[in-house]
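hiii, so i know i said id send this last week but things got crazy w the move. better late than never?? heres the sequnce for the chain we talked about at the cafe, plus the structure i predicted for it. fair warning i was half asleep when i ran it
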Amino acid sequence: MPRPVALVTDSTAYIPKDLLERHHIRVAPQILIWGDESFQDGVDITPTEFYQRLATAKILPQSTQPAVMSFVQIFSELVESGYDVLAVVISSKLSGTYQAAMQARQAIANGEVEVVDSHTTAMELGFHVLAAARAAEQGASLAECKAVAEQAQQHTGVVLTVNTLEFLHRGGRIGGASRWFGTALRIKPLLEVRDGLVQPLEKIRTRRKALARLVEITVERAQQGGHPIRLAALHANAEDDARWLLAQASAQLHPEEALVSDVSPVVGTHVGPGTVALAYMAGM
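okay and structure toks below
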């Protein structure tokens, strides 16, 4: 009989706390560096605290991936408790987290640990983790859970709009949207995570039109994927807009699951305040 499987992810997924607890998912926090201070993402600093401080900050924060030893500690505790371990983490093109988790995997001599590069982040990553967690709860083996997490990549997406490309540009996460930087003062860009990078979709003239188009794109893509559908509206200090997005999309898609989630402070560092997104899983 296979050993039970425990799921691990990193804090950029920012899966709501009740779901983390329900599915017993462990989280390796990213590190937020602010001048001479460092914070564990979502542990030592919450999104609310982050945006309050950002509003008056003279020094802007930076981020770095979890330390290898952070993963080693989590993996070791789970293996010693009788679990095989599946870690599903942020895109390796956006962060060094995957490499850190792979190094930690090599340090675990007496247990089975697998690591999956999700090629995405935020709640699109979260949906991959939750799908694998549900499989684990149904008795799936480590190999089967890994296959579910990899399969989920074909059934999910995330579309976002930012108030400004400045934060993505400064953090080097701007991807193909770089060609818009410098000409984007009057536009509200629609972006997606594609092939592991933040990529451009469309240029929209106003915030209101950008939000409406974001819903249209998400509904079209999720309908193509089929049911069941799961939705998450994400926001960086813009909860009202996120709730509007979720209500509009839910009215058309009738999702099995729908939730609103902050983006983690580390993600907020790179997308900037006012960013909103819709993430979906469709057909699995």
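btw The first helix runs from residue 17 to 23. thought thatd interest u
miss u guys!!
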